[in-house]
Each structure stands twice: as C-alpha cells, then as structure tokens.
TrEMBL record:
EC number: 2.7.13.3
GO molecular function: ATP binding; protein histidine kinase activity
EC category name: transferase
Protein name listed in UniProt: histidine kinase
Example of a GO cellular component annotation carried by this entry: plasma membrane
Subcellular location: Cell membrane
Catalytic reaction list: ATP + protein L-histidine = ADP + protein N-phospho-L-histidine
Domain HAMP: 268-320
Coiled-coil segments on the chain, per record: 308-346
Domain Histidine kinase residue range list: 342-551
GO biological process terms, semicolon-separated: signal transduction
Length: 551
C-alpha cells in the first residue's frame, strides 16, 4: 500500500509540475504580449515626438533664416513687401508679416489673398510679438480659423546693426490635419494619435481601432508644451490571449491525459513486481537473509529477481562468516583480558616481591664479592621485567579500548603527571618543562599519559650521559598542539629514525622493552595525530608529537 500511495503521489506531483509548467509558460507568453504592445506603444510615442520636434525645428529655422534678409527691416517699403512675398512663395508658410519695434504692423503677405487692412494696426499686445522682441524664436498656441483649420504663428526677431527693430511673423496652416497625418501614418495598424495644445485644446485626433479599453502613452513637447497621446485598444490582445487560453487548456488536457495513461500502464506492468521487491528488501533489513522472491513479467524484472536472490544468498553467507568471526574475536578478547589480569596482578606482584627480597639481600651480601654482582644482575633483570609487564599491560589496554573514541583532554595535567612520575622513578635524571604549558584541550583518551611517559622514559634509558637531561615543551599551532621531548643523549641515526617505532625495536643498545615507541605511535595515530623524531642541537634527539585540538 505504501508503494501504491507513493506511486500515486509521484504521478500527482508530476501532473502538478507539468501543469504548472504549461500554465506558467502560457501566462508568460500572455504577459509578453502585453509587454510587447506596451513597448511598441512607448516607441511609437517617442517616434511621433521626435518627428514633430523635427518639423517644428525646421519651421523655426526657416523663419530665422528668412529674418536675416536686411530688406525686411525697411518698414513699409516695397522691397520689404517683395521680400515677404518671396519668403512665402519659397517656404511652406501660408503667410508672413512684419511688425515694427513699436508694435505697428508694417507689411503682410498671405497666399489666401487677404487684404492689407491690418497694415498699420497695433499688435504690440500680442504674445508672439512680445516673445520675439525679447529675443527668442517663439511658436504660438494654435488658433482655430473660421475654416476650422488651426494656424500656427512662428515669430523671430529682426535685427539691424545688432538692435532688434521688429519681428518676422510666419503663419503655418495645420490644414485638415494633413500636417499631423504624416505622423499617424507611421503608427502601427489600430493605433490612434491625439495632440493637444498647451491650453488643453485638441488640435488633432486619429481614433484607434477598435476604440475601447485603451492603453495610452503620453509625452510633452518641450518647445510648445503640446501633449502627444498614442493609444491602442487592448481588445486585439485580449482576443489573442483568449486563443492562448484555449490552447493552454488543450495542452493541459493532453498532458494530464498522457500522464494518466502512462501511470496506468506503469501501474499494471511494474507495481506488483515493485511491491514484492520492496517486501523482499524489508525482509533483508530485518536480517531475514533466507528470503527469496519470484518476479514475473518482462525479462528485466526476472533478472532483477535473480539478482535479488543471489544477493540474499551472499548476505546470508557473509552474516554466517561474520557471526563466526565475532565469536572467535570474543574468545580472543576474553583471553586477552585474562592475560591483562595476569600481567596487572600475578606476574607484577611476584616481580615486585623479587625486587623487595633483593633489597633485603643487599644488606647480607658482602661488598665487592661475586654475590654483589649476582644480586645487581638479579635486580636489573627484575626491574626490566616489571617494565615489560607495564608495557604489556598498556598494550593490552590499547587492544581492549577503542582508541578512536576520542574525548576532550586538557594537556597541562597530563604533562605534569608524567614529569612528576618520571622524576620520582629516575632520580639521577633532570626532567624539566620548558616554558608554560598552554591550557589547551586535545582529542585523545585516557592512554595519552602512556604516550609521553614512554617518550620521556625512552629518552632517559637510551641516554649515555652521567646525568640524562630531558626537556618537554608545548606549542599551540592553531588547529594542532605540538609537544617536543628533547634529550642530550647520543641521538638517533637517520637510517633508524623510522625503524625505532617498529614493534620490538630497541634502537641503540640500551635497556627497555623496545615496545614503548611502538605503543606511542600506535596511540598517536589513533588520535589522528603524528609522531616524528628529529636531531637536537647540539646533540641528542627530539621526539615531536602533533595532536589535534579539541574545539
């Protein structure tokens, strides 16, 4: 049942993911449609603004160039009139006039044949005259004529010897919207254009198609203050969006239908075999290694069933071997514990008794006699045997304890205890701590003292000086702690620096079991550290122990 639920959940999850992908994809496409149209609307608005600015700039430049003719400053003269006529004929302006600096119109020419009854009139109160006399080329607000067309006046100052002596006023007819129609023709199909004067009067309109649910973009001409509005209906986009929605629904139905058919096929073909296979694995998890399964259907399932049964037989064999090995290991562990008890108590106690009686016999043996030599040999051999039992006991402890189970141990008390024990045992040696031992914790276990005790003892036993000197120093290296045990002995040849850590290696001819350094390296390796031997300056050897710090 779990497999069925998981399968159905997986099919449902895939259906949701695929459906979401289809929906998101189509929605993204819909959004892209609106974004594209909005971008195109913005582009069209900027294009109309640029073109209209260019046309108005051209009209202003034409008026400014015409105003440079000195004949126009000869107010009321025939040459002034001829110059105006030529200006109107050669430009796109419908008419032109000259107003003197005092506001009196001195000449006017219009292609409409308008009479000159305005000549001599006072136009000093007109805004376009005042702005031109102030030194600028001014584009006036459009004025609606009796014909219904709008007239645009462009005024520019007339100069004589650097002094403004009047204005040239050129009239431009925005005839039936022809002037603006050239801009609307650049728009895309269905887009509309509206232009309003600075006062809010609509001077041109091209209606969008269809004229409903409009998107609009506006901009303002800096020169005239006219507002340009380009509009477009959302209706065509919505129609395309509805088409996409229909396609989206069809795609969803196709995806879900295909997935349902696939799920039904997989369920019928594979789910029964899969459930039996999972049941077999659950049996293996419960260590029922005699489990066998029979999968039917496709050849692939039969191969899987054969492989499972082979795996079950292999695991059963390995488990039997492991159980037998564990029984042997348990027996060896029991024997090792028995040996450890013998070393700890029986043999060590008997050897201590031998040493005690040897000390008693020393008072009864005559100095210089053969008996004294025999007694010294006896005592030396017994002492070495005691040391051997101690090392063997530590070796047994290492074997019985998982040294990899490290814990946080502070190094200072460990070093201090070792130094005090060795000083009490070897009174003829000088054992010192160089500097201060940092309050640092390392990763080790209770056998850490054995590492440094063996290193310090080894440095004394292998020393050829009358007074062996051993110095212990500790450095905190960040992520590690380094302990150095230096002596003033004969040193260790390069050829033996690696061999001395071997099992049973004495190094130089000296006392000792030969197991201390092997035990030290075994423990340090288990702690994840490192131990090396270097030359001391000027003589002797330095054992360098690196241990990982505890966080």
């Amino acid at each position: 049942m779990k497999t069925k639920r998981l399968f159905l959940l997986l099919i449902a999850l895939i259906a949701v993911v695929l459906s979401a992908s289809v929906v998101v994809g189509f929605q993204h496409h819909k959004d892209a449609l609106y974004t594209h149209e909005e971008t195109e609307l913005e582009r069209a608005t900027m294009h109309v603004q640029s073109e209209l600015d260019g046309q108005l700039d051209a009209l202003q430049r034409t008026a400014e160039i015409g105003a440079t003719n000195p004949e126009l400053t000869r107010h009321g003269s025939a040459s002034q009139r001829r110059t105006l006529e030529t200006f109107v004929e050669r430009s796109s302006f419908a008419g032109a006039s000259v107003i003197a600096a005092n506001g009196t119109m001195t000449n006017i020419v219009a292609d409409s044949g308008r009479p000159d009854d305005t000549v001599g009139g006072d136009f000093g109160d007109r805004v376009y005259f005042q702005r031109a006399m102030a030194g600028e080329t001014y584009v006036s607000e459009p004025i609606e004529a009796e014909s219904g067309n709008y007239i645009l006046t462009i005024s520019t100052p007339l100069y004589e010897n650097g002094t403004r002596v009047g204005t040239l006023n050129a009239a431009f007819h925005l005839e039936d919207g022809d002037f603006f129609a050239q801009f609307s023709s650049t728009l895309e199909d269905g887009q509309g254009l509206t232009i309003e004067s600075q006062s809010g009067e609509r001077i041109y309109t091209a209606t969008p198609s269809p004229n409903a649910d409009l998107m609009e973009r506006q901009t303002t001409l800096s020169e005239t203050g006219w507002t340009i509005t380009v509009s477009e209906s959302r209706v065509p986009i919505q129609e395309r969006s509805r088409e996409l929605t229909v396609l989206q629904g069809g795609a969803l139905l196709f995806v879900l239908g295909t997935l349902s058919l696939f799920g039904w096929w997989v369920y019928r073909r594979n789910l029964a075999q899969l459930e039996e296979l999972l049941a077999g694995f659950e049996a293996l998890e419960n260590r029922e290694y005699q489990t066998r399964i029979a999968l039917e259907g496709a050849d692939e399932w039969q191969h899987i069933g054969h492989g499972f049964n082979q795996l079950s037989r292999t695991l059963d064999g390995h488990m039997r071997e492991r159980q037998a090995y564990e029984r042997r290991l348990e027996t060896q562990r029991d024997n090792l514990e028995t040996l450890n008890q013998v070393l700890r108590h029986d043999i060590r106690n008997d050897l201590q008794l031998v040493l005690a009686y040897g000390d008693l016999l020393a008072d009864h043996v005559e100095a210089g006699s053969d008996g004294e030599e025999y007694l010294e040999t006896l005592q030396d051999s017994a002492s070495q045997a005691v040391e051997l039992t101690e090392t063997a006991r530590e070796m047994a402890d290492v074997m019985l304890t998982n040294a990899a189970d490290r814990q946080q141990l502070f190094l200072s008390p460990v070093i201090t205890n070792v130094i005090e024990d060795v000083r009490s045992q070897y009174t003829n040696a000088e054992v010192a701590i160089e500097g201060r031992v940092p309050e640092t914790a390392v990763l080790a276990n209770g056998m850490l003292e054995s590492v440094f005790r063996n290193l310090v003892t080894n440095a004394i036993q292998h020393n050829d000086k009358a007074v062996p000197e051993v110095t212990v120093s500790v450095d905190d290296d960040g992520s590690d702690v380094t302990v150095r045990v230096a002596d003033n002995g004969p040193g260790i040849p390069d050829a033996q620096k690696e061999e001395i850590f071997g099992k049973g290696e004495h190094g130089l001819e000296s006392a000792g079991t030969g197991l201390g350094l092997y035990l030290a390296r075994t423990l340090v390796d288990a702690y994840g550290g490192d131990i090396q031997v270097e030359d001391n300056d000027p003589e002797g050897a330095v054992f360098v122990v690196t241990l990982p710090k505890a966080e």
